[in-house]
Design goal:
The chain is mainly alpha-helical. It is built from 3 helices and no strands. α1 runs antiparallel to α2 and α2 runs antiparallel to α3. The radius of gyration is 23 Å and the shape is rod-shaped. The chain starts with a helix and ends with a helix.
């Protein structure tokens, strides 16, 4: 929706009201992306902590002479490492989106400024 709106506006002929509405939508979307980045960072950090705990459990199980428990603990390590990777990938995607939105906000603000009366 935002991409379509920006495309229509940059094609020309958009009113100040349309530009302003798109600018506000872009700003709200930017804030939502920031929230997602924060949530994903929390998930990443939690997954990292869990992976570390389970790596420690693998060592404990091996030292205790319990290879079956070590295998189960290692499966947990892999699960948490996968969750950490997924969170990192989501963060990367969200930051890329933030960068694109920042560019769009700059362009929309420029267009809004040009459409202000007296400009």
């Amino acid at each position: 929706m935002l991409t379509e709106s920006i495309a229509r506006i940059t094609a020309g002929g958009a009113s100040l009201r349309q530009v302003t509405a798109s600018l506000e939508l872009a700003r709200r979307t930017y804030a939502e992306y920031e929230d997602w980045v924060a949530r994903c960072r929390t998930l990443r950090d939690s997954a990292d902590d869990e992976a570390a705990t389970w790596r420690n459990n693998v060592v404990k199980a091996e030292r205790a002479g319990s290879p079956e428990l070590a295998v189960l603990a290692q499966q947990r390590v892999e699960l948490w490492e996968r969750r950490e990777r997924d969170a990192r990938a989501a963060i990367t995607d969200c930051i890329a989106g933030l960068n694109r939105l920042a560019d769009a906000i700059t362009e929309l603000q420029r267009l809004a400024d040009r459409r202000q009366p007296g400009s």
